[in-house]
């Protein structure tokens, strides 16, 4: 488990709330989720989502130019199934965007 932003309860909680929490948790770690309205999608903060989207666009572009699935597997270190999923997904997105216009 990775703890991204560990904070000591003494530093961030009012004393009465800290005392109340200590009745339930004694020196253990607890995760407090964000409010629903404040949640961001997977990979949005780290930029991973953008990187994967860009990679998938590259894969689809190369495939569209005639590169083989085997070539793409080796170039991107992905399984055949993963490459095919990217191609199908990108085709669907392209089709949907064409239908919207």
Can you tag this structure with a few keywords?
single chain
Layout of secondary structure:
Elements: H1 9-12, H2 15-22, H3 48-64, H4 69-76, H5 80-100
Describe this structure in words.
The protein is mostly helical. Helices cover 57% and strands 0% of the residues. Helix 3 packs across helix 5 and helix 4 packs across helix 5. It is elongated. 5% of the residues are buried. The mean pLDDT is 87.
Q: What letter string, H or E per element, gives the SSE order?
A: HHHHH
Q: What is the first-to-last residue Cα distance?
A: 45 Å
Structural class: mainly alpha
Please state the average pLDDT score.
Answer: 87
Helix content estimate: 55-70%
| Total strands | 0
| Percentage of β-strand residues | under 5%
H/I helix tally: 5
Whole-angstrom Rg: 22 Å
Uncertain regions spanning at least 5 consecutive residues: none
What coarse outline follows from CA principal-axis ratios?
elongated
Q: Please outline the major beta sheet.
A: none
In short:
With 101 residues, this protein is mainly alpha-helical. 57% of the residues lie in helices and 0% in strands.
């Amino acid at each position: 488990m990775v703890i991204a932003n560990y904070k000591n309860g003494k530093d961030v909680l009012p004393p009465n709330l800290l005392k109340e929490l200590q009745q339930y948790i004694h020196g253990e770690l607890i995760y407090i989720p964000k409010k629903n309205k404040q949640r961001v999608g997977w990979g949005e903060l780290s930029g991973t989502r953008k990187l994967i989207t860009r990679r998938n666009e590259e894969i689809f572009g190369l495939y569209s130019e005639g590169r083989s699935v085997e070539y793409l597997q080796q170039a991107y270190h992905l399984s055949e199934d993963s490459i095919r999923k990217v191609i199908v997904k990108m085709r669907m997105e392209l089709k949907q965007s064409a239908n919207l216009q």
